[in-house]
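Today's session is about reading a structure prediction critically. Students often jump straight to the picture, but the first step is always the sequence itself: look for stretches that repeat, for charged clusters, for runs of hydrophobic residues. Only then move on to the predicted structure, which in these notes is written as discrete structure tokens rather than atom positions. Here is the chain we will use throughout the hour.
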Amino acid sequence: MSNPNLLLIGSGDFSIITGNSAAPTNESDYDAADAMFGNLKAFSFQNQAETKEHFGSYRGVRILDKVFTTQLRLGYMLQLEEVNDRIVETLFYGSSGSLTGGSPDYREINPLQQPQSLNGFARLRVWDDKDAQNPRLMHKDFRCNVRINNQPELGDDWFGYELKVDVLSPVGTVFLRQDA
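Below is the predicted structure for this chain, in token form.
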């Protein structure tokens, strides 16, 4: 029988702070509007390990006798649905301009002004259906490279896109909420 305390069911968010050479000291920095990619609908781990195999010769037969791990990679594939200034700037590799001042008011975004990926310190939070205030899983203060992984999809009542997150060094800390 499965243990419902071990399930990661729900939604989440992802924040990245670019331009910092160190992880932020204040948790509220991750909650700032210019750092947030919200409404995380699904995520998957993109972990990889590179190994080297050694074959020994035993009575004329080569047999695998040792495996060494030489390289580890940690990453995520995030599926998000929220649209705000930050994601539109990222989709167009743009920089934010001024407001038009009309009715309705529009923000000008100048395409092809920014790099095709974002680098900085990040936080990933995933909530479950048991506690809306405290995330079930949180990975924070890790340096990463983030880029759009696919063409955004637009439906009648939704907008979806994927972010590929490669975790760099320092790798931060992962927190898992303990439930009784």
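Discussion point for the tutorial: The first strand starts at residue 12 and ends at 18.
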